[in-house]
Specification:
alpha/beta; Rossmann fold; 2 domains; 7-stranded mixed β-sheet; 10 helices; about 45% helix; about 15% strand; globular; GTP binding; P-loop_NTPase; GTP-bd; G domain-containing protein
Length: about 325
């Protein structure tokens, strides 16, 4: 890929109907590193035509691959379930449907290197920084592997977080993109597609509110066709952006409340596992089974660590979010004109 370029988004008009800040347009600028680690010079982005699309989904769902294919960018792609995205990344600007488009790559809520609260903090701070500057967010893509035999608890948890971040009012600007069709038979793929579209625990609520589900065949033409269905839409403000812009503490947002419920359920399960392990350890001790005792002790330590992590994950979110927001605004060189 060619060098990654820096971007300057200057004098962007605020949202017409969805404006949350009654203020003058500000400069919105981000520098990008080239592949050799140097910082490229700023490149102007036309404020009259530039639109943004957020790409979300579970780790390994193909978010970064889709973005690189659509934009000819060179963002790092993870291997398997190992994520390469630990912050929001932006694509190179490119043209689709007469608009200059920038795609935002986000970490998944099942990221291997971060907690879910870390992911919420990072995504929220970036979206709020964008919204404060009037950057025109026109849609959200949610990547879904059609190759998944079943949608497990982790994937459903990711989807619930995604829905709370967006809010029902933004579903019309959401496209669920199914990919990896080449790894399944057409019959199996269609059956899974129908299940995803027809069940309340999956994408039915989004589709009922004018969201769309589209297939991606891993070509640039396909990626651009999907984006053409978003770039002409009116800008939106996501629920998390609106809540935080109105002064709601991040721990009182709909997304955090959903996360807190998930963490509480997780902690309860870990506690049950811990009690079961303790009983098994007593039995192994009575039977003088040293090998089993050792295995159970190691498993007990891991469960205790997971329990502690689930119980304390959200404790510093509010302060960490403010620090992250300041970091993002500094990175984006946010300043008054």
């Amino acid at each position: 890929m060619g060098q990654r370029i820096a971007r300057l988004l200057a004098h962007i008009p605020c949202f017409s109907d969805n404006v949350l800040h009654d203020e003058e347009p500000k400069k919105f600028k981000e520098t990008q590193e080239t592949k050799d680690g140097s910082v490229a010079a700023p490149s102007p982005i036309d404020p009259n035509t530039t639109v943004y699309v957020v790409v979300m989904g579970s780790t390994g769902s193909g978010k970064t691959t889709f973005i690189n294919l659509a934009s000819a960018s060179g963002l790092g792609v993870g291997s398997g379930l190992e994520s390469c995205t630990n912050e929001v990344q932006t694509s190179m600007p490119f043209k689709v449907g007469g608009k200059q488009v920038v795609l935002l790559d986000t970490p998944g809520f099942d990221d291997t290197s971060m907690t879910d609260t870390d992911v919420l903090r990072i995504i929220s701070a970036y979206l709020v920084a964008m919204n404060k500057q009037g950057a025109r967010l026109v849609g959200v893509i949610y990547m879904q592997r059609i190759s998944d035999l079943k949608i497990g608890g982790s994937a459903r948890r990711d989807l619930r977080m995604f829905q709370e971040l967006c809010g029902e009012e933004a579903y019309e600007n959401v496209i669920v993109v199914t990919n990896m069709w080449g790894t399944v038979s057409e019959e199996d793929g269609i059956a899974r597609e129908n299940e995803l579209a027809s069940k309340d625990i999956f994408y039915k609520p989004i589709l009922e509110r004018k969201g769309r589900m589209m297939r991606h065949d891993n070509t640039q033409k396909s990626a651009h066709h999907i984006l053409e269905n978003l770039v002409q839409k009116e800008p939106i403000v996501l629920r998390i952006q609106r809540e935080l812009a109105e002064g709601v503490d991040i721990t009182q947002t709909a997304a955090f409340k959903q996360l807190d419920r998930e963490l509480s359920e997780m902690a309860a399960k870990h506690q049950q596992d811990l009690e079961k392990l303790k009983d098994e350890m007593v039995q192994a001790e009575q039977e003088m089974d040293e090998e089993t005792q050792k295995e159970l002790a190691e498993e007990k330590q891991k469960v205790e660590e997971d329990l502690q992590k689930a119980q304390t994950q959200a404790s510093r979110l509010a302060s960490d979010y403010q620090a992250e927001l300041r970091r993002i605004e500094e990175k984006l060189h946010v300043r008054e004109v």
